[in-house]
Amino acid sequence: MELSESVQKGFQMLADPRSFDSNAFTLLLRAAFQSLLDAQADEAVLDHPDLKHIDPVVLKHCHAAAATYILEAGKHRADKSTLSTYLEDCKFDRERIELFCTEYQVTYFKIFN
Predict the structure, then answer these.
(1) Mean pLDDT across the stretch 78-96?
(2) E strand or H helix at 5, and its extent?
(3) What is the rounded distance in angstroms from the CA atom of residue 19 to the CA atom of residue 25?
(4) Which BP terms in the Gene Ontology apply to this protein (predicted)?
(5) Residue 15 in contact with residue 86, Cβ under 8 Å?
(6) CA separation for the pair 12, 4 (Å, rounded)
(7) Are 41 and 31 in contact (CB under 8 A)?
(8) Cβ-defined contacts of 15-24 (< 8 Å, 24+)
(9) For residue 14, what are the contacts with CB-CB under 8 A and spacing of at least 6?
(10) What is the pTM of this model?
(11) 1-59 pLDDT tens trace
(12) For the chain, how big is the Rg over CA atoms in Å?
């Protein structure tokens, strides 16, 4: 699975706890998954009060990067091991990897079936 440098950088920013604390990470990740199910969904979440401290450009960049990765992973029918390896390469910690994989598994069938 090859992703552009821009997507990789956005994903690495999302992995950084200094940029996205645990709550902000969870909100943005769920918004990325939800935006693939409902185009209207991401706008409201990106205006969430717990995300106001994050530069809107960074927020949208990371949201787009996450959505792109989700779609690419689905297109390649990535399993948990493949997801985890890429997330580790992007410096995601164990907790964030687990959350991503859980959200991916729950949402995968809604998007790709």
Answers:
(1) 95
(2) helix 5-15
(3) 9
(4) sodium ion transport
(5) no
(6) 12
(7) yes
(8) 15/87, 15/90, 15/91, 15/92, 15/93, 15/96, 16/91, 17/93, 19/54, 19/58, 19/62, 20/54, 20/62, 22/95, 23/50, 24/50, 24/51, 24/53, 24/54
(9) 20, 25, 28, 29, 62, 65, 66
(10) 0.89
(11) 789 999 999 999 999 999 999 999 999 999 999 888 887 665 667 788 999 999 999 99
(12) 13
Of 25, 6, 2, 9, whose CA–CA distance to 103 is shortest?
A: 25
Helices (H), 16-113: 22-37, 41-46, 56-75, 80-89, 94-112
The residues spanned by each domain of the chain are 5-112
Q: What sign does the dihedral 58-77-88-8 (CA atoms) show? A: negative
Structure tokens at 8: 């990789």
For 10, the token pair is 């956005």
3-state DSSP assignment of residue 33:
helix
Place of tokens 């409902």: 38
Query: What span, in angstroms and rounded, lies between the C-alpha atoms of 29 and 1?
Result: 20
Give yes or no for a contact between 40 and 9, defined as CB atoms under 8 angstroms apart. no
Alpha-carbon distance of 100 to 28, in angstroms, equals 11
